[in-house]
Amino acid sequence: MFKYRRLKLWMVNIFLLLMCVVTLVPIVYAFSVSINGSNSLFSSEFSLFPKQLTIANYIAIIKDKPFLSWLKNSITLSFLTVILTMGITIPAAYSFSRYKFKGKTQLGNLLLLLNAFPTILSMFAIYRMMKIMHLINTMTGLVLIYCGTIAIFAFWSMKGYFDSISIDMEEAARIDGANDLKLIEKIILPLAMPNIIVTSVLVFITAWNEYIFATIFITGEANYTLALGLFSLQATDYSRNWPLFSAAAILTSIPVLFVFFYIQKHVVSGLASGGVKG
């Protein structure tokens, strides 16, 4: 029995290792293209290990293109979207989880129904609203759009976690004299921090990678996000520089990787502290 379990564990580990290798192949290939000295992506001479190694593509994307401006726009846009979305959805999700009020079920069903329809269907109405409010080609308009499209997902994610937190702890805290503000600050938010971090990261990545709304509501190269900037590098059919594009794609992925590496320990520690407090 022990040998069978050990063999099963080995098979699972080998399968996961193979999956990691398969997942890493496109990333390694893109990096290989980015350090290739020639734009020979589709030629028979191209290989995974280029003969002409260079970092000129990385230097060119930073010096010759407004990459740093695109990076600043994406960081600002993503962080503002996270702050606004979580600032709205956390109180709303807690209210839905803990309080009873008239129309609660109907409103929840409406949110589910709205989430079932593709956002692209409301594009014309959103554009008219943004135009009336003079928010076309502004960071504020894009943040509001992103918040509106992601908020429902963040709301249900947070509500599900609040539902899993025992009400007995809140009742005990109220008996000890804690008001609603202290209750949320000292008990609810620390317990919900793992899910808050994970949901915030998902909101961040969604805003970071979003392209459709950005291409419609943002004009001018200086106002581009990284998604728009990457597309602009391949916008023409006759001047495509794949090594330059790959270098930009690799640089675009680095901030997201840093976010993942940074939050990993916080998620683990948050789960551990939440278990102790529970």
Structure, described:
- The protein contains eleven helices and no strands.
- By secondary structure, the chain is mostly helical.
- It has a single domain, classed as MetI-like fold (Orthogonal Bundle).
- Helix 8 runs antiparallel to helix 11.
- The longest helix has 36 residues.
- The two termini are 36 Å apart.
The CATH class label is Mainly Alpha
Structural class: mainly alpha
Number of helices: 11
User: In the CATH scheme, what's the topology name?
Assistant: MetI-like fold
Q: What's the mean pLDDT score?
A: 82
In short:
The chain has 278 residues and is an all-alpha fold. 76% of the residues lie in helices and 0% in strands.
Topology:
Elements: H1 2-34, H2 56-63, H3 67-98, H4 104-116, H5 123-132, H6 139-164, H7 167-175, H8 180-209, H9 212-217, H10 226-233, H11 242-277
Helix pairs in contact: 1-11, 2-11, 3-6, 3-8, 3-10, 6-8, 7-8, 8-11
